[in-house]
């Protein structure tokens, strides 16, 4: 009995140590009011909670007298030793916030933002709550170094340090460590498939190369979003936003309603198990693409305009199909306006849930599932409607205090997505009549339309005025399906649901699988802080032959990466040295090593000087490697060697320019009476065998210096300058492959190959490859944060970016697409009066030329513009609710941010947030 009694006592003591519950209240030291949202964690573990609206917390611990870490943005962190059974009373003192911010992404370990080895920006929960922009993602525009372009109400793309685009495969976006890209597109579609504001805890931005720690996608930078842990952020949160846009829109249509509703619920069932669920639904009317500027490259600028028979209007599609008619001139088909083709009723649905299980205080398992669906319009080589696009993600993670192992999958379904330009062209091929009034098949429609036009213009059609372009067009357009009619809507629907060259539909049911891990070896090595990690990624693409040759030949790509990082502090922690290196291998390319070295010198806590050498690389996307699309006159061919096997496109072809020179010379000789064979011999030397290398990764090297420090207690300065060198940019090159060998046995141009060109025994290819040219970019930024008396806060920053082409061929270099100057100014006060706060954000950027494949690389001017966002908020503590009245682009200035994308006006909203 004594032994049994002793065992029971032992078990009780164990149970008590496991189950002891600590409770307490946290207050503000100066006001003695309770503080909600204070983080309370057990030191050395993953366990943590936040205080409720009354400042009360409850946390369990397995150890006697645990050390609790109590922290909140804007207050000094405290560590206290807790005793079981005794209520804990803690008063937090208002701190110098600028000394408290911690970041993770710069070095993949926690560190003070002032001592980050590279430039980094951060938005925390409080900044997200106070932003005047309609969402946290929109608010990124006011972050130093960021460029943002709008393709749609539901799609904004961000970039840093140049070479910007509307679909950015050079910039990595992570949400809880999960790459937010869609596998088929190869880039993240803004926040269309991201997180709602209610679940975002913080956002960190690294401008510039981050490949040394994060791999090939982080070529231009990294955006890391962290969501709220359900153990710490419990309870119900709800938010609704109602608003209006399209006020005084030059494109017409009148004001349109905007609505977004979000819910978040999280609960810790016990000390081991917690869960959260999120739901968000946004709906509104998209911005209109209504710029009808004539951009036809084959018409002199002074002859372009609405009366140009060969007009190619920017946001009218189908009029790209044009011919030069003998004795008439250049004529284009009648196109359809974007508003009649694109889905302007856009929406976004985001659903996700996560379960967290703590095996111990130091080991936590997570399973998360995300489902997103939405519609947006994206400006690429055309205007694409990502219509009812679906994305599924699953994430499993095991996380300890010094390691994590994470696996996730992403699967997409393009559903009803389509190419708006292809839709217009195909619509134009469904109704064309021949001269006898019979509707012709689509393959003959364009030629027949031009025949009708020429006949009418030349006076061959009764009751049609000869020599009149308007009359000729009206005759050629007889039977045209008009927008809004039954025939138009039926054909539009059919073509949207027809993928491939016969329709406009875009088909992709591609998948991505990823596993990564990291371990902190510092406790084992001790001499230095040491982290190591790696990842494996697998792409499984499916387009059913519409984009890849994947009906039978599966397109699958594997890649992996390994990294190690060592850091050491010297001279009483005044000097921090960090070195890291990463090796990445894609199965289709040689391995790539990307090192990074940095130093931070801190003569005092308040002054930190940094210098770093960084490298970056970008693997070609899967479409870059494996696209195989026969569009009739040309085959678009990805640059992976296996993709062109048997086609002889890279091995046996002429440059397109030399084929043009040969044809011109041949025709000139023939007109002078030279015989066919002799004309061939006279001009074949003008042909040049192409020397197009297979595709390989892009490369960059960058050097950066910077300073981040405090002047007094209320002013922070962040200054940096960088210089970058780029090589191996991905480009496209057109070649002509003859049926015969290009070279004869003696190495000269083969006469048979030259004759193949004249006899149309050739195939044109658009090949993906790299340019050997080298270019540079440099830039600088200055940021100031100033805390004024009575709670006012001022943030100001300016960024300068400069591109140097050097001796490179402009045709071989992607467009820089970045304004030389960007400036932001934000003024805010969360407590302007009792329960009332406000914030105002002003953005300005200089004018620049935008180049893209949408306009066949012809430049379009983006004028300088400024945007003003503002909000005023009112807190209702008794019902834990905040009311906010705000506006994005308060002055309602309609501005195009990327040439070919819509002009964006003001969005005015009222939001109600309950937490």
Structural features, described:
A hairpin with a 2-residue loop joins strand 13 (171-175) and strand 14 (178-179). The protein has a 22-stranded antiparallel beta barrel. Strands 10-15-16-13-14 form a 5-stranded mixed β-sheet. Strands 35-36-41-40-37 form a 5-stranded mixed β-sheet. It folds into 4 domains: 18-95, Immunoglobulin-like; 102-289 and 342-417 and 777-914, no CATH class; 301-341 and 421-496, no CATH class; 624-694 and 731-770, no CATH class. With 915 residues, it is mainly beta. The model is unreliable at 1-17 (pLDDT under 50). The protein contains 13 helices and 52 strands. The protein starts with a helix and ends with a strand.
Outline, from the CA principal axes?
A: globular
Distance between the termini: 54 Å
* Percent of sequence in beta strands: 35-45%
What's the gyration radius in Å?
Answer: 31 Å
Q: Considering DSSP H and I runs of 4 or more, what fraction of the residues is helical?
A: 10-25%
Task: State the low-pLDDT regions, or none.
Answer: 1-17
pLDDT average, as an integer?
A: 92
Q: Sheet with the most strands?
A: 22 strands, antiparallel, barrel
Number of helical stretches of at least 4 residues = 13
**Total individual domains:** 4
Strand-pairing-aware structural class: mainly beta
Q: In short, what is this structure?
A:
With about 900 residues, the chain is mainly β.
């Amino acid at each position: 009995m004594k032994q049994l009694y002793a065992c029971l006592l032992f078990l009780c003591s164990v149970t008590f140590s496991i189950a002891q519950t600590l409770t307490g209240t946290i207050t503000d030291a100066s006001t003695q009011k309770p503080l909600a949202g204070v983080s309370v964690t057990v030191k050395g573990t993953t366990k943590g909670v936040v205080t409720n609206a009354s400042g009360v917390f409850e946390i369990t611990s397995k150890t006697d007298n645990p050390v609790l870490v109590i922290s909140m943005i804007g207050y000094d962190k405290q560590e206290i030793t807790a005793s079981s059974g005794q209520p804990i009373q803690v008063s937090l003192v208002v701190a110098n916030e600028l000394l408290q911010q911690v970041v993770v992404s710069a070095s993949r370990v926690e560190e003070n933002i002032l001592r980050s080895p590279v430039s980094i920006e951060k938005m925390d929960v409080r900044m997200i709550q106070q932003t005047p922009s309609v969402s946290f993602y929109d608010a990124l525009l006011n972050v130093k170094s960021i460029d943002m372009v709008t393709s749609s109400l539901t799609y904004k793309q961000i970039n840093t340090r140049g070479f910007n685009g509307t679909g950015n495969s050079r910039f990595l976006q992570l949400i809880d460590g999960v790459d937010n890209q869609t596998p088929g597109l190869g880039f993240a579609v803004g926040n269309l498939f991201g997180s709602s504001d209610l679940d975002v805890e913080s956002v960190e931005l690294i401008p510039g190369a981050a490949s040394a720690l994060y791999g090939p996608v982080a070529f231009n930078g990294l955006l890391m979003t962290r969501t709220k842990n359900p153990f710490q952020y419990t309870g119900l949160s709800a938010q609704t936003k109602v608003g209006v846009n399209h006020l005084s829109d030059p494109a017409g249509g009148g004001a349109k309603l905007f609505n977004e509703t979000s819910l978040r619920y999280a609960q810790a069932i016990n000390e081991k198990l917690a869960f959260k669920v999120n739901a968000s639904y946004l709906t509104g009317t998209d911005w209109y693409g209504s710029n009808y500027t004539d951009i036809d490259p084959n018409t002199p600028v002074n002859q372009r305009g609405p009366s140009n028979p060969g007009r190619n209007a920017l946001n009218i599609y189908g009029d790209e199909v044009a011919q030069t008619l003998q004795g008439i001139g250049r004529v284009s088909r009648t196109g359809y306006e974007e508003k009649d083709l694109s889905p302007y009723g856009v929406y976004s649905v985001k659903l996700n849930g996560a379960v967290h299980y703590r095996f111990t205080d130091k080991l936590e398992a997570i399973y998360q599932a995300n489902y997103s669906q939405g519609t947006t319009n994206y400006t690429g080589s055309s205007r694409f409607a990502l219509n009812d696009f679906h994305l599924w993600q699953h994430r499993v993670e095991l996380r300890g205090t010094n390691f994590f192992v994470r696996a996730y999958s992403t699967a997409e379904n393009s559903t009803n997505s389509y190419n708006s330009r292809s839709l217009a062209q195909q619509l134009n091929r469904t109704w064309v009549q021949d001269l006898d009034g019979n509707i012709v098949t689509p393959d003959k429609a364009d030629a027949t339309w031009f025949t009708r036009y020429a006949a009418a213009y030349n006076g061959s059609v009764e009751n049609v005025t000869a020599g009149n372009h308007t009359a000729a067009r009206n005759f050629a357009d007889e039977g045209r399906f008009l927008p809004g009619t039954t025939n138009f809507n039926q054909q539009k629907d059919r073509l949207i649901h027809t993928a491939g060259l016969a329709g406009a539909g875009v088909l992709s049911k591609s998948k991505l699988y990823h596993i990564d891990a990291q371990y902190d070896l510092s406790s084992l090595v001790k001499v230095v802080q040491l982290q190591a990690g790696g990842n494996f990624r697998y792409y499984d693409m499916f387009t059913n032959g519409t984009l890849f040759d994947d009906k039978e030949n599966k397109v699958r790509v594997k890649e992996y990466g390994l990294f190690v990082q060592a850091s050491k502090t010297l001279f009483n922690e005044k000097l921090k040295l960090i070195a890291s290196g990463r090796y990445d291998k894609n199965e289709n390319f040689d391995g790539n090593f990307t090192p990074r070295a940095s130093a931070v010198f801190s003569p005092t806590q308040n002054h930190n000087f940094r210098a770093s050498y960084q490298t970056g690389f970008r693997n070609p996307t899967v479409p870059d490697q494996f696209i195989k699309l026969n569009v009739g006159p040309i085959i678009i061919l990805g640059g992976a060697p296996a993709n062109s096997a048997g086609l002889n496109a890279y091995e046996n072809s002429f440059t397109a320019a030399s084929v043009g020179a040969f044809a011109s010379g041949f025709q000139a000789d023939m007109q002078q009476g030279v015989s066919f064979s002799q004309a061939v011999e006279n001009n074949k030397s003008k042909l040049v065998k192409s020397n197009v290398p297979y595709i390989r990764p892009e490369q960059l090297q960058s050097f950066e210096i910077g300073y981040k420090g405090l002047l007094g207690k209320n002013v922070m300065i962040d200054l940096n300058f960088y210089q970058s060198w780029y090589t191996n940019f991905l480009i496209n090159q057109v070649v002509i492959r003859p049926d015969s060998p290009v070279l004869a046995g003696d190495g000269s141009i083969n006469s048979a190959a030259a004759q193949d060109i004249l006899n149309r025994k050739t195939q044109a290819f658009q090949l993906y490859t790299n340019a050997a040219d080298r270019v540079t970019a440099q830039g600088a930024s200055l940021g100031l944060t100033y805390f004024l008396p009575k709670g006012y806060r001022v943030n100001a920053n300016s960024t300068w970016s400069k591109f140097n082409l050097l001796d490179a061929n402009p045709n071989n270099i992607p467009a820089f697409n970045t304004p030389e100057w960007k400036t932001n100014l934000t003024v805010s006060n969360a407590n302007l009066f009792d329960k009332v706060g406000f914030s105002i954000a002003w953005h300005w950027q200089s004018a620049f030329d935008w180049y893209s494949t949408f306009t066949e690389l012809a430049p379009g001017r983006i004028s300088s513009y400024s945007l003003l966002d503002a909000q005023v908020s009112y807190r209702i503590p008794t019902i834990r609710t905040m009311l906010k009245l705000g506006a994005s682009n308060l002055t309602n200035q309609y501005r195009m941010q990327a040439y070919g994308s819509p002009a964006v006006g003001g969005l005015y909203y009222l939001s109600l947030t309950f937490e």
